Amino acid sequence: MFGRAVRLLLSIVMLMTAAVVGTVATAGTAHADGCYTWTRTLSQGASGADVTQLQIRLGGYPGYGSVLAVDGSFGPATAAALKRFQSAYGLTADGVAGPNTYSKLYALQDDDCTPIHFSYSELNSCNSTWSGGAVSASTAKANALRTMWKLEALRHALGDQPIRVTSGFRSHACNDAVGGASGSRHLYGDAADLGAGPHSLCTLAKQARHHGFRGILGPGYPGHNDHTHVDHRGSQYWSAPTCGV
Length: 245
Known about the structure:
- By secondary structure, the protein is an alpha+beta fold.
- The chain has helices spanning 2-28, 49-57, 76-88, 99-108, 137-157, 172-177, 201-208, and strands at residues 164-167, 192-195, 215-217, 228-231, 237-239.
- It starts with a helix and ends in a 6-residue tail after the last strand.
């Protein structure tokens, strides 16, 4: 009888230990990430690779008509973008990147660093290598990642309803096959064509003005009545006449 009681007690202790270990493991995943983990609080004046990683994820929050530089230097523009991000997700908008900001960013990204609602395959239906465009494969893929984070911000601003990407990176061969312009931004990996869905093409074109896209082409612009095009060209050019853009 005594031996049975001891065995029962040991079983209970083992179950409680397993439960505690499981809780700790689960809690730990909230503070580390398969893509990137920040190890310090960031604010104005900071610089380094961790600032660069933050800026990539804040690319969709530069403010109307602006573009956030990804230069590894935490200046006023980065602080302002961070405040917009924090406000958008109900965080204290203090312009300082700390545990709460990082936890939200971890929740928003997959282990390959893409935002949870977009993927590399979605931004490249041309090939699996990202080669054959106007820039190196690594640059094209990096450009697409920045575009996806801007699209994630656009998606959130529009109520977290799906955004349908109909075209992303193209090699020269893929671009020629669809009759794309010879200097198309799709060749650089920093462009995306968006189709109508929960939101009209005009809604997408208008809202995109707030999320770091220098190029916006939509209904009323030749060849763009069935999609809204966004990109990161060298200077601002917006034209969607039907939408008042």
